[in-house]
Amino acid sequence: MKPQAAAAGAPLLQVRGLHARYGNTPVLHGLDLDLPQGQVTALLGANGAGKTTTLRALCRLQVQTAGQVRLGGQAIEGCSTEQIARLGVGHVPDGRGTFMGLSTEENLRLGSHARASQQGAEADMARIYGYFPRLRERARQQAGTLSGGEQQMLAIGRALMGRPRLLLLDEPSFGLAPLVVKDIFSIMRRINQEEGVTILLVEQNARLALALAHQAYLLETGRVVLSGTAAELRSNPAVQRAYLGE
Amino acid sequence: MNEFLHQLLAGLATGGIYASVALALVMIYQATHHINFAQGEMAMFSTFVAWALIDAGLPYWGAFALTVLLSFGVAAAVEFIVIRPMHRAPELSVVVVFIGLLVIFHSLAGWLFGYTIKSFPSPFPRDAWYGSTLMSAHEVGAIVVALLMVALLFGLFRFTRVGLALRAAAQNPVSSRLVGISVGRMLMLGWGLAGAIGAVAGMMVAPVVFLDPNMMTGVLLYAFAGALIGGIDNPVGAVLGGFIVGVLENLIGTYVVGTELKLSVALALIIGVLIVRPQGLLGRRLVTRV
User: Fold this and answer.
1) How confident is the model at residue B234 (pLDDT cuts 50, 70, 90)?
2) Sign for the pseudo-dihedral over CA of B256, B206, B114, B77
3) What CATH number should be reported for the domain holding residue A178?
4) Residue A156 lies in a domain
5) In Å, how far is B31's CA from the nearest CA of chain A?
6) Any CB–CB contact under 8 A between B183 and chain A?
7) Cα(B93)–Cα(B101) distance, integer angstroms
8) What are the tens digits of pLDDT across the range B71-90?
9) CB contact, 8 Å: B175 with chain A?
10) In this complex, do A93 and B165 lie within 8 Å of one another by their Cβ atoms?
11) SS3 helix, strand, coil % of chain B, rounded to 5?
C-alpha cells in the first residue's frame, strides 16, 4: 500500500533502502520512505522497532548507515550530521538533548547555528516565545532546571530556531503529563500548518500520532510493514488491535 | 612584616603564571575530559620560538604576537593530527599519548635550541614598580597579563557566538552537532586557545626562571594543583586556584618547609584537594547515577 499523499508532489525527503547498524548489530533493513512537502508523517511501532534509529540514520548520528537519502532532490547520505542540520533538518532528539548548563535563551540561540545568516534570529526567538510563553519566563534560567515539558518545548524551539524545512521529532510526548502533551501537539500542528514545516514524527502513542499526521509508516523490527494515510492506518484492524488497543 | 608582604606579592606574581597554565588545562579538560600533560612543554617550546624570533631581530611585541599565533596553530594541529584519531581510545592510551607529546616537545626543544640556560627578556621595565621594593615591574606586568587574558577569554565565552558554540560543544557534543556546530572544529579551536594561553604564560615566566627545556616542569604541577583547587571544570576557579597556589607555595616555602621542598607543597595540595574536596572550590560535583 503506497501512501496516497505522496502522489501530491515531489517528496521533500525520499529514502531508499536505508540500512543502519550499531557496530555489528543491524537495526534497519532497507527502509523506503517518502515525506511529502508540507505534511506530517508519523513513524509508528513498538519499542525496538527502529524508530529512533531511523531518525538518527537520516542525520547520520551515532549509527553506521547505508542507502539513499534525498532532501529536496539533493543526495545527503554522504553529509555529516552538522552539514545535514545546516541543510535545514531540525532534529528534536530522543531525550531532548538539552544543554543543561546553559540558559534557556542560550539553548535557543544555539539553534540558529544551523542556518547561514543570523538575520531575523531575534524575531524567530520572539515567535518561539509566542508559541511557548513558559520559555520566555524561564529565559535566564539554567535549562537543566526546567521541567520535562519545558525541556521538550525548548528542544522544539531550538530546532525551529534553525528555520528547518524538515523537522524530525523523537517521541515528544515521552514522560509528559497529558495536558502538556496536548499543548505540545497543538503547537506542532500550528508549526506545520502556519509555517509549512514538513514533520516526521516518531511516536509510541499511535492514537496521538495518527490524530496529527497525514500519513504514517508502521515499523516492525527494522522494516516497514504497513504504510498509508492516517485514516487508512486508523481503520486497519491489525493496527487497531496492536497499537490502538481497540 | 615587609618580608611577609614581599613574599605574598611575589606569590601572586607566580600565581598569575600558574593561573594561566591552569586556564589552558581547563580549556582542554572542559571539552574533552582529558588533562593535557604536555601543556607545560608546549608552552616551553613556544617560549623558545619567541626567543628565536627575538634573537633573529624581531621587536619584543612582534615576536610575542607571532609566537601566540604560531602556538595556536601548532596546538590546533596537534589536536587534529594526534588527538583526534584517539577519539575512541581508552583513557589510558590517551594519557600515554599526552606523555609522548610531553617527551617529544621536551626533546625537540633541547635538540633545536640546546640545554643551556638562556635569559629571556621581559617587556616590562627592569626597575622596581614605582620605586616600591615590594614588587618588580615584571611581577606586576605578569599579573596584569594573566588577568587580561582571563577577561578576554571570559568575554569570548560569554558574549560571542563562537564562544557559545565552544561551551555547547564541550557540554553536549551530540546536541551541538544537531544544531549544526562542527564539534571537531570547536575542539581544534579549544586546543589552539590553550596553546596560545600557554605561550603567553611561558613568555611571562621565562624572565623569572630563565629559559631551558625544564622550565615548565614544575609550573605544570603547580598549575595542575591550582586547577584542582579551583575546580578542574571551572575557568574562574582555575584562575583563583592558580593564584592561591602561587601564594601558598611562596609562604609555605619561605616560612615552613624551605625552598628545597617547595614543589612538595603542590603535591600535598593536589592530594589534599582530591581527598577533602575533589570537585574543588568552584567546581561542580560529578554525580553518576548507577
Assistant:
1) confident
2) positive
3) 3.40.50.300
4) no
5) 14
6) yes
7) 12
8) 999 999 999 999 999 888 88
9) yes
10) no
11) 75, 0, 20
